[in-house]
Structures are given as C-alpha cells and as structure tokens.
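Blackboard transcription, Thursday session:
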Amino acid sequence: MKKRGNNTRGTILIENVIFIVLNILFLMILILFLYRQGSGAVVLEQSYAKKIALLIDSAKPVTEMKLDMEEAFVLAEKNGVKPGDIVKINRNVITVQLSDKGGYQYSFFNDVDATAYPDVSPNKNYIIKINGYK
Amino acid sequence: MNKRGDKILSVYWFAILLIVAGGIFAMVYVFYGTPYDIRDMEARILTNQIADCVSYVGKINSNLILNGAVKEGNGNFLDQCHLNFNSPEWKDAQFYAEVNFYNLENLNTPVLNIKKGNGNWLADCNIQENKKQGTLPTCLRKSFYSIDDKNNQYIIKILSVVRKAEKNVRI
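(Written on the board underneath:)
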C-alpha cells in the first residue's frame, strides 16, 4: 500500500512539471511573436518615414536634424541594406527601406530641398538637412 | 499513463490553447496592421505654416491687406507660402487649405478669402462636424486675431484638410 502511494505522488509531480513546462513554452513563443512583430521592418519603416515627414514639414530652411535610428541600423544590417540606403528623399517623398521588400513611402508638404544621410559618429543617427526653399 | 495523457494532450486543453493563441494573433495583426494616423499633426503643422505666412509676429502680410484695404488678385497667395500639395505618390492633391479674414464689425462675410489644394475634400469636413470618421479627411479649424499696418483688427480663420486616408487608416 505504501509503495503504491509513493508511485502516485511521483506521477502527479511529473504530470505537473510537464504541464507547467508546456505552458511556459507556449507563453514564450507568444512573447517572442509579439516582440518580433513590434520590431519588424514593416512597422519600423512606417514609423521612421512618418517621423521624418513630420520633422521636415515643421522645419525651416537651413536646419540640421539628427534622428536616432539605432533600431533601424541594426535591422537594416541584418537584412543586408546599406546604411546610406535606409532613408531616401526624392522630390517630396521619403522612402525608408529596412529590408529588401521595397520600403515605405510618405510625402511631405513643406516645399523645401531636403537631404538625408547617415551620421559618421556616432553611427546610430541619421542627419536630415533642410537646405532651403525650392 | 492514461490519466497523464488525458491532462496534457486532451482535446479540451488544445482547444483552449488554440483559442488563446488565435485571439492574440488576431489582436496583434489588427494592432500592427493599423497604420499610425499622423494626419492630425500634419494638419496642425500646415495650419501653423499658413498662419506664419499670412500674419507674421501679429501683423498681417502687407501683400494681403495694406492701409486697411484688401489688395486685389490675392486668390493664389498661398502659393507663396512654400507649400507643395502635389506628390508623385498620389494621383490627386491630398491637402486643402482655406483662409478667411474677417473684420471685427462683420463676422459673417469675409473681407478676404484665399485657398489652395483639392477642394473636393471640403465637403467631407461638414460630414465630420458631429462625428469624426477615420476614413474621411482630417479637418482642423483654427482662428486668431491680427492687425494690419493701420492697426485695424481682423479675425483670421484657417481651415486645413489632410486626406491621405490609405496611408493613415485601415480601409
């Protein structure tokens, strides 16, 4: 009788351990999924393109702005995009590209001549320069 | 053995896991699939830029009103405000701006009206007066007081409209 009781206790313990491990595994997969979604190229491209558009819209000529884009640099490097190709300004359209899938475009209404290039040091910033009105 | 299998791999437990995972995936998909809506900020910046253009440091631009008289041929004055409403990204202009100048004696009829952009979006602003709808353009109305060179007082009302719905709301 004593032996039988011990066996049942052991079974209950293993059952619970496996049960808890599976639950933790499930939660970890979900958290990883959430983290990857939040730091994905699509979300970041949109976020940076819109931030830069708002910065340019509210800027006056002969302004130099530094934008912290560390996350973008890390992701771009991972996806094989050169730092100089992350932000492109063509006429009044900004294109932010962090993967090889084309990037995200957003336009600004301020009629200025703007250029964007990566900062040399520290190399986590992007410089947005407003040269003058067109 | 049978009991353990029942608890860990039961259909019931898997159903719960699937429902929870499905719910979370759906919420994440909706959350990250919805674009950031920055049109309100764009409209505010546009309003500020127009306000600085028509009236700088509290004085109305002398190209608009001089010696208490409205200058003729100012309908396209906003073209001088460094605004570019056209973009290769869009087929039609996605902005509209209108400025009305009122004498304090008569607030019903503007003494001067200037506008720029795509007037088609104006009708949508009236629809949104009671309830804001994301798929329609964002409209912002602001007004402020200013004086001309003869210290005559005016109320300047600015209406800024930003559409860009496809890039700012889930359609």
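Lecturer's comment: The helical segments of chain A are 2-38, 41-57, 70-78.
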